[in-house]
Amino acid sequence: MVQIPSDTGQHGAFEQLHGFASGQQFADALCDRVARFHGTAFRAWLAFLTGDLDASTTLARELLRRYQTALMPDNAGNQVQRIVARFALLAVAGEIATLQGITGWQEGTAYEAVQICLYAWLNERGHIANQEDEGVLAQIKRFITAHQYSRFASWDGPDRPLNMAGFRRVEKDPLTGEEHTLFHILPEGWREMCRGFSPVRAARLCLEAECLLPGSDGKYQSQVRLPEIGKARVYPTHLPHPQYLSAVSRVLKKGRYRVGQVVHADADARFSVPL
Length: 275
Hints:
Helices cover 49% and strands 11% of the residues. The protein is an alpha+beta fold and 275 residues long. A 5-stranded mixed sheet has the order 1-2-3-5-4. Strand 2 (166-172) and strand 3 (179-185) form a beta hairpin. Helix 3 crosses helix 4 and helix 4 packs antiparallel against helix 5. The longest helix has 22 residues, at 78-99. It comes from Salmonella enterica subsp. enterica serovar Sanjuan. This is Phage DNA primase.
């Protein structure tokens, strides 16, 4: 079940009241119309679909392809892709019904409404990866944040904690001069950190999120010379700050456009598939 936040910040669940004095009056009017006319639009919709099933199916498929392409965030996980497909299908139904004069809306209204709901859901979700993938990165971040001083030895200092998970080393960016901490995580510490998940999968996700530095051989582990230990294989890791979070921000900014500019770039080609 997709949970979509409904507060628009203006009139509760409603963005506009269509001439009514309050959201309550508008809601009451909607309930009255639904009670009196429910099913009317659906019968007209079915009559259109069955009037020329092949043509309406072709049109729906073409619009679904366009809408999925326009709505899909870059690098979306499988779960987000499935949800976007469901939103796109709703937009298809609304736009075709509008084309047939069933809704009384302007062209693009259904798509734009779906777009607003989708971006509200993405914003509430906070990322475009699969929930399980986000959970891996969140768990790693929690571990490092909670134990960065108690389980990670200082690279340059004398402290060597019991049950050590690795080393922490403060490095300076050669370009910006900014300091950041790199955690050289030992294999046994990595397995503990990823408990409940595949360590290999966790490493892949961290690499994709650009918080794991790969070895020169392209593997997830790097061989480094650790203080007092010597050469050892470790997972060089920054505190995760997954790139898909900024991707959501880009998607939301991208969403401030009219549907006609995205789906119907050529005004003469709108709904060009014949009915």
